[in-house]
């Protein structure tokens, strides 16, 4: 297989993987674990584990509170996060843009603003916001990891992985960073390396649901559907775990991504990453 054919095949696989990440709802983005506190029917429940109905209810409840106090930093960030999870990226960005005006030098606000920009596809402004939030003499590992996630979306995988490794120097064995690093290799078509990092992430005591769902994704992408469903069902309801795996099967069947990847492996089309 020619190098160009291998590159095109990996690009198609990465596009399939990214579609799976987004549509199956399995990916994490390195954000802090966040719950809805005491607002709404899903009080105390982590945002990433909410169903579509729970997210909608939380969005409505948080929206009411936000309307009466839009400059409450914690409330605004929480509301923007729920809006983003609920698919309202434009509204989420509007909330964070207003908050960034009110708190122009706040690291938490700038970091959340950067993530909202990235979710809206405004990657370069997102990168600028996250970098502005960073303090070189006291670097924040969360911001370093967020920078890596944006660089990955810009297609700058080598720079992204350097940022993840820097974040791991600052916060060794942090599962969200290990997960981001694993997802970087997934999007690059290296499923074996992706699984290595995601398994390491999932074994950490502070690993959350997103990390394990990312592991389920990469296992499923390798055709080990029963194992993927078992991992997913540890925290998801059985019907949701089964639905995610069914979606994986359907996508891989439609786009032939798994067979394409195996052909590339046999033909030497895949590149070895040394960084």
From TrEMBL:
TPR repeats lie at residues 141-174. PROSITE patterns: PROKAR_LIPOPROTEIN (PS51257), TPR (PS50005). InterPro entries: O-mannosyl-transferase_TMTC, TPR-like_helical_dom_sf, TPR_rpt, UCP035836. Pfam families: TPR_11, TPR_16. The keyword Repeat applies. Residues 1-27 form the signal peptide. SMART domains: TPR (SM00028). Keywords: Repeat, Signal, TPR repeat. This is Tetratricopeptide repeat protein.
